[in-house]
Amino acid sequence: MFGPKAWIWATIVVPALAAKASLNLGNGFDLTVDKDSNHLSIARGNSSIWETVAGKPFLSASSGVDEVVGASGAFNITDVDNDKCTDQHIRRVTQSAWSGSVNDKAAIVEGTLSGCGDESVDFKFAVWVPAELSDRIAFHIDVKPGSSKDAATKLFLTYASSKSEDFYGLGGQGSFASMKNQSVPIFSREQGVGRGDQPTTDLENADSYFSGGDQFTTYSAVPQYISSLARVFHLAEESTAYTKFDFKDLKAVTVRYAARSVDGYIIQAENMLDGITKLTEYTGRMAELPRWVDTGAVLGIQGGQTKVNRIVDQGLKQDCPIAAVWLQDWSGTHSQSVSYMSLTVSRLWWNWESDEKLYPTWKKFVQELRDQHNVRTLSYINPFLANVSTKPDGYRRDLFLEASEKGYMIQNATTNDTSIVSSGPGIDAGIVDLTNPAARSWFRDVLIDQVFSANVSGYMCDFGEYTPVTKDTRFYNKSIDPMFYHNQYPRDWPKLHHSLTKSVSSFKESILFQRSSALGSQRYMNLYWAGDQNTNWGLNDGIKSSITVMGHMGLSGFAHGHVEIGGYTTTWLESGVVNRTAELLGRWGELSAVSSAVFRSHEGNVPQLNAQFYSNSTTYAYYAYNARMFRSLATYRRRILDTESKNLGWPLLRMPVIYHPNDVKAKSISYESFYLGADLYVAPVVDSGRTSVEVYLPGKETFTHVWSGKKYEGGQTVRVAAPYGKPAVFVVGKPQHNDLKDFLEFARKENGTVIRV
After folding, report:
1. CA distance 260 to 62
2. Which pTM was predicted?
3. 3-state DSSP: the chain helix, strand, coil percent, rounded to 5?
4. Angle 48-51-52 (CA atoms, 0-180°, nearest 5)?
5. What is the DSSP letter of 282?
6. Residue 682: which of 644, 629, 639 has the closest Cα?
7. pLDDT for 714 beyond 90
8. Mind listing the GO molecular function terms for this protein (predicted)?
9. How many domains are contained in the chain?
10. What is the largest CA-CA distance in the chain?
C-alpha cells in the first residue's frame, strides 16, 4: 500500500542542523533531536507521540544468522546475535526532500554504530508524515552491513514506554492478556499441540520436534500492537522479515528486525478503538459477511452423503436452525493407523475434486440440500497438492502431477524437485508457488472449475504457514529470500482467493475462512477462525485460548472471527487420551453463540473419540439450543458488522481493556470475560463442572444479568449462576439501539429450559 518503493531520496538537502534542533515534519508534527545525548522525540502540539530512551541507543545492530529448525510448519527459532553494535553516534541531522510526505520533506538522522569489533557501521533513520495518512509518522531505517566478515545482519529499534503501558494485538496470541514482560516473535507457523499446557506439550515435543510449540507459536503473527495508551506501532507490509517485539523492559520497547532495512508507522490515537480504525486505514478492513451466516449453525460433518442427510434431517427435527453444512472431506480421505487402541484416523486427500466414493453425486447433492432445506454447503481448500498416485479409489485429475510438470510448486534446489510436505504415511504434497503468476492463474481455474462449479458457498482456506525457509528453497521469483517470503505467504494466500471476486458470480455470498494471517491479510478476507485448539479446557491451547486469540486478533485489525466449536486436536499420549466431552462441546457451543460471527462446529481430528453434536438426542438438543441462541443475536451482531466493523474496523469480540485502559484488572483479562460489541458483557464457562462464574464488572456502568434480571454496579466482582445453556451475559448500561430484542426474548422464553449433558 505505502511501501519502500515510495521513498525517494532527493538531492536537495538542508544543511546539517545544530546539536539540538527541532524540525517541522508537517501537519503539526515536530521532531526534536539532541545529537549529544542520542535523544529523539516526536510531538504533535503539546502531546508527545514517541521518544527514545535517555542513555540508551535508539538504534543498534548485530551480526549472525538466526537458526530456524523444523519442518511441516513446526519451526523453532533461535536468535543469533554475535557482535552487537550498541555505541551510537549521531553524525548529522538534515531535512531532505522526500516523495510521498505531506510537506515533501523528511527528517534524516544519520550516524554510526560501533562497539562490535574494529569496524563501525553507518545508519540512516528517516521520519516523515505520509501525505495519504497524515495523522501519523512513517519511518525508514537503513543500516549498512560493513565490510568485515561479521557484517551486520539485523537491526534493533528501542524507544520509551512506561510501567503502566500494556500491549495487545500482534496477531493470534493465545496465552497472555497484555504482552508486557514478554518477548513476542513474529513468525507464522503451526501453533503446536499444547503450547505450554503440560504434560501435553513436552510429550508432543518428545514425539516430534517442536510439535508442541510454546506460548508464542501462532498461525497468525502480525508485526503491530496497540497499547493501553492508544499508541499504535506497526511495520509496513513490505517489511516481512522475522521480527521480535521485546516488552521485558518496563520502560522501553525494543523491536528486533532480522534485516538491515525496515519501514513502519507510529500513531497516537485518541483511544484503543480509534487505534484499530487508524491501523485498518492502512491494512484495509475485512469484507462483508453474507447475511445467511446469521440464520443458524454451520454443521461440521464428515462421512459422505448418506450421513450428512441423516444428520441434517435429525437437526431439523430437533429445531436446530441450520445455515450450512461444512464438509471438509469432500475431496476424499486416506486412512492412517495410530498406536492408540488400534485406531484408524482419516486424513484428507489434497486433490481438489469431489470424491466419488463419499460424494458420488456431489453437484446434485449440494443443490438438493439448498433446494430442499435451504442449507448451503461449504467445502475445504489448502495450498497443498497431494501426490494421489496411490489413491485406491482413483481420481479424475492429478493436480500434483500437473503442477509438477509445469513447475507450479515451491522447489528444493538440493533435490532439484518439488519441496515436499508430509501429512503422515501415504500422503506427500507440494505447496503452490504463489510467486508464479501462471501458477496463481492455474490454481484460480482449479477453484472455479472444481470447487465453485458445484454451487458451494465458500470453504475453509486452511494452512498458509508452511512455506519452507531453508537456503535451498527456490521460488519462481528467484529474487525472493525464503525467510522474507515466509511471513508474506499468509497474505498472498487469501489474496489469491479474493482475486476470484469478478470470476465467481456467487463470491459475495460466500465465506472463505482463514487461520493464518499477516499484516494486510484482512483486506482479502471476510472471516477468520481462531485455529486448531485441543479438545480440552486448557489455558494455552484449549477453549480458553480461543477467546484470547480472538481478543488479540481484534486488536490487530481482524474484525470477523469465530471459534471452532469443540476444538480440533485430540491427542493420545502416555498420559492418556485427551478427547472432547459432551460438557466441553456444549460449553464451547455457548461460547460460540455469544462471541462469534459464525456458529461452526468441527468433528475433530479423531471423530470417533469425541463427543459429537449428533452423538445422541441430548448432545444435539444442547447444540440446537446454542444455535438458536446464536440466531437470536443476529440483529445485534449484524448492526455491529455492517457499521462499526465495516466503517471503522472494530471487532465483534472486544477485550475489556479496550473500554477500560486504565483499569488494572481489566488490562489483565484474557479469556475470563469480554464485550460483544459495546452493549453486551460476557463471562463464559470455560472450566469443567462449574455451574456459576465469578466475573469482574469493569467501569461505572450498570450491568443487567439477562437470565435473572438482577442489576450490578460496575467496579466489583460478582458471582452469578451459569447452568448449562446459561452463560453469564449482561446488558451494559442503557443501549442506544433496539437490536437486543430477539436475544432478550430468547432469554425470557428459554429461562426455564433445562439442558443436560
Report:
1. 10
2. 0.96
3. 25, 30, 45
4. 165
5. H
6. 629
7. yes
8. hydrolase activity, hydrolyzing O-glycosyl compounds
9. 2
10. 81
How far, in Å, CA of 54 to CA of 32, rounded? 13
The 3-state DSSP class for residue 29 equals strand
Q: Would you say 399 and 382 are in contact if contact means Cβ atoms under 8 Å apart?
A: no
Residue indicated by cell numbers 486448531: 532
* Joined grid coordinates for residue 100: 510521498
Q: What is the three-class DSSP state of 337?
A: strand
The residue among 211, 245, 268 that closes a domain is: 268
Structural element, H or E, at residue 364: helix 362-373
Identify any residues that bridge with 93 across adjacent strands, giving them in sequence order.
Answer: 109
- State which amino acid sits at residue 496: L
Where do we find the cell 510436505?
421
Measured CA to CA, the distance from residue 699 to residue 64 in angstroms comes to 49
* pLDDT tens sequence across 116-153: 877 889 999 999 999 999 999 999 999 998 777 678 99
- Is residue 663 helix, strand or coil? coil
Q: Is 357 helix (H, G, I), strand (E, B) or coil?
A: coil
Q: What is the mean pLDDT of residues 449-457?
A: 97
**Do residues 434 and 496 lie in contact, with contact meaning Cβ atoms separated by under 8 Å?**
yes
Phi (first) and psi of residue 161, to 5 degrees:
-135, -165
pLDDT for 116 = 84
Residue 292 domain-assigned? no
* Type of residue at 78: T
Q: How many CB atoms lie within 10 A of CB 535?
A: 29
CA-to-CA distance for 312 and 303, rounded, in angstroms? 13
Q: What pLDDT does 406 receive?
A: 98
Band (pLDDT 50/70/90 cuts) for residue 17 is low
Q: What is the DSSP letter of 403?
A: H
Query: Where is the domain boundary, 268, 294, 319?
Result: 268
Q: What is the pLDDT, as a whole number, of residue 16?
A: 55
CA 364 to chain centre: 35
Is residue 451 assigned to a domain? Answer: no
Strand duo 322-326 + 376-381: pairing:
parallel
In angstroms, the CA 547 to CA 370 distance is 32
Domain with 663, as residue range(s), is 654-750
Element (H, E) at 546: helix 543-554
Is the model's pLDDT at 2 over the cut of 60? Answer: no
Is residue 542 assigned to a domain? no
Cis omega before residue 199 (within 30°)?
Answer: yes
Which residues, in sequence order, are CB contacts of 96 under 8 Å at separation 6+? 9, 10, 12, 13, 14, 105, 106, 108, 126
Q: What's the CATH code of the domain at 722?
A: 2.60.40.1180
Q: Classify 353 as helix, strand or coil.
A: coil
C-alpha span between 35 and 89 (Å, rounded): 8
Judge whether 420 and 428 are in contact, CB under 8 Å: yes
